[in-house]
Specification:
The chain is an alpha/beta fold and 248 residues long. It is built from 7 helices and 13 strands. It has a single domain, classed as Class I glutamine amidotransferase (GATase) domain (Rossmann fold, 3-Layer(aba) Sandwich), CATH 3.40.50.880.
């Protein structure tokens, strides 16, 4: 049987001004992410917010691994800070939902792969903090998000050659960059495996404990196209699904 990968939901909260589903909350997945999971031969299954007596553990009991999507900002209140600007308030509701997923997945030995926001909330859930906005709070940083060119914004990453990512990619390569938040204080439970060459922003993390598997990637492997000369997304998915299969 195919592996079943629980995918954390993105949220559109109730909005009376939205032209569809007026005043209703939507939970959704980005199509490229689901397609990427299926490209590895696994079945993606959305993890809904718990309701009517169900708990996160009930949903994780039905899947073999967990994937955390990108999307909205992490709220600074989730790591003990006050938003410096209203537009950086983030989504505390989603934060609490995904923190519960991460904590429960580790307890239940369900491997976790976090993409972009997924890396950030993984760091926060395990005791780290974020730059609310990299450019505003780190004067030495490069631009990590350009809305106009989106996933065509690229930069080089340096990878620890002794790490598991190093075994896949050597000392580095080019990636896409679509985020304005990033890791400020790394969780003591995580180790960094990749950094932006130009400014040192952390681009990949891994749980130190061998008792559970958590990998966070700041770039979007699911967006990489064949015409881009970027790090091949397949080895990341293969490692994750291998871990899922071994622990099933």
């Amino acid at each position: 049987m195919s592996l079943r990968i629980g995918v954390s939901a993105c949220f559109f909260h109730a909005d009376p001004k939205r032209p569809i589903f007026k005043g209703k909350t939507l939970v959704y997945a980005e199509a490229s992410m689901l397609q990427w999971v299926m490209s590895g031969g696994a079945i993606p299954v959305m993890i809904p917010p718990p309701y009517a007596g169900f708990a996160i553990k009930d949903f994780l009991a039905e899947v073999d691994g967990v994937l955390l999507q990108g999307g909205s900002d992490v709220s600074p209140t989730s790591y003990g800070e006050t938003p410096l600007k209203p537009e950086w308030n983030g989504d505390r509701v989603r934060d609490d939902y995904e923190k519960s997923i991460i904590e429960t997945a580790i307890e239940m030995d369900r491997p976790v792969l976090g993409i972009c926001r997924g890396l950030q909330i993984m760091n926060v859930a395990l005791g780290g903090s974020l730059y609310q906005d990299i450019r505003e709070q780190n004067s030495a940083s490069i631009v990590h998000r350009d809305w106009d060119i989106y996933d065509d914004l690229l930069h080089r990453v340096r990878i620890d050659p002794s790490s598991r990512l190093g075994a896949m990619y050597g000392e580095g390569g080019m990636i896409n960059s679509i985020h304005h938040q990033g890791i400020k204080d790394l969780s003591p439970q995580l180790s960094a495996e990749a950094w932006c060459v130009e400014d040192g922003i952390i681009e990949a993390v891994r749980l130190k404990s061998n008792k559970a598997y958590c990998l966070g990637i700041q770039w979007h492997p699911e967006f990489i196209r064949k015409d881009q000369n970027l790090l091949d997304p397949a080895p990341i998915l293969k490692e994750f699904l291998t871990e899922v299969s071994n622990r099933k």
